[in-house]
Amino acid sequence: MSRRAVAPEAALRAIIDQAAERLRADLSRTQRPTPALPAAREGEHERDPVIDELLWSYLVWEAGETRAAPRFAAIAEQYVDLNDLRVGLPADIAGVIGVTYPKAAERTERLLATLNDIFHREHAVSLSHLTELPKRKAKAYLASLEAIPAYVATRVGLVALGIHGLPLDERLTALLAADHAVPEGHAADAAAGWAERQVRSGEAIAASAALEHWAGERRAAAGSRTVRASSSRGVRPNGTPDTHATDAASDGTTSTTEA
Q1: What integer pLDDT is reported at residue 23 of this predicted model?
Q2: pLDDT in tens, the chain (259 residues)
Q3: What is the predicted pLDDT for the residue at 25?
Q4: Comparing C-alpha atoms, which of 193, 145, 136 is closest to residue 163?
Q5: In angstroms, rounded to a whole number, what is the distance separating the alpha carbons of residues 120 and 123?
Q6: Where are the alpha helices (DSSP H) in the chain?
Q7: Residue 170 in contact with residue 215, Cβ under 8 Å?
Q8: Which residues of 131-167 are buried (b: 16+ CB within 10 A; e: fewer)?
Q9: Which residues pair with 241 in a beta bridge?
Q10: DSSP state of 31
């Protein structure tokens, strides 16, 4: 049977199951704690894991966990907490995230709009009250926050509040579509709505983690191919001459770059 003849449901399940198996074998990833800003970790104020997850999800959106990790660390070093971040200048925040980070300007604008909306509603940058709401109301609250991407709202609800969903952004949807693992022609929001119906509620967190792991593997493999191709031509991936790559190719070593 050709790959195109496989139903999207079966293709999605195969990707999740295989990636989950590889993820379980990688203890460093399965034991990754929910990120938190230093002030929360040091007990300077009460820990709010929901708002921590909001920032992490904003950084993972359209970028992936591998790229998000150093950016989260940079924000944690630069800003005391999310209220400090909320009042920061957009250009400064974008600079901390990195201007070459995917959707850097849009990400910053959306994040600040969301944080300010939370502050105006709650008189604090906190989402801890959502843990006390019925899941339906908490889901509606997250979706109603100003400028929040559907991926971020779904992921925060899933990971921090146990609300069923399967967060997909354009990045994940494009990768799944390339493997015929979502219905043809589905945009990210429609694909996410379809995908969450293919996963049982108790499996959604593991399935989401598996998809992110799989996407990270795909990006790493693509990056390795780009570096190898550039090295063989004696140029960097941006097209400039790379004498180190030429030397590395000649002695059998590999040069890598961090995006």
Answers
A1: 84
A2: 444 568 999 999 999 999 999 888 774 544 454 566 654 444 445 679 999 999 999 999 999 999 999 999 999 999 988 999 999 999 999 999 999 999 999 999 999 999 999 999 999 999 999 999 999 999 999 999 999 999 999 999 999 999 999 999 999 999 999 999 999 999 999 999 999 999 998 999 999 999 999 999 999 998 777 666 666 555 555 555 553 343 333 333 333 334 4
A3: 78
A4: 136
A5: 5
A6: 8-25, 27-30, 38-41, 49-60, 65-78, 82-86, 90-97, 104-122, 135-144, 150-161, 170-178, 188-196, 204-233, 243-251
A7: no
A8: eeeeeeebbebbeebeebbbbbbbbbbbbbbebbbbb
A9: 235
A10: T
Cα distances (Å, whole numbers) of residue 58 to 52, 53, 111: 10, 8, 7
Tell me if 228 sits within 8 A of 248, measured CB to CB.
no
Give the pTM.
0.83
- Residue for token digits 């790959």? 3
Residue 172 · residue 180 · CB < 8 Å: no
What's the length of the chain? Answer: 259
- Residue appearing with tokens 């708002």: 51
The letter for the amino acid at 256 is T
84 φψ region: left (φ > 0), alpha (ψ -120 to 50), beta (else) = alpha
Question: Residue 72's CB: how many other CB atoms inside 10 A?
Answer: 20
- Residue 184 CB partners (closer than 8 Å, separation 6+): 177
Q: What b/e readout covers 75-94, taking b as 16+ CB neighbours within 10 angstroms?
A: bbeebebbbebbebeeeebb
Distance of alpha carbon 202 from its chain centroid, rounded? Answer: 21
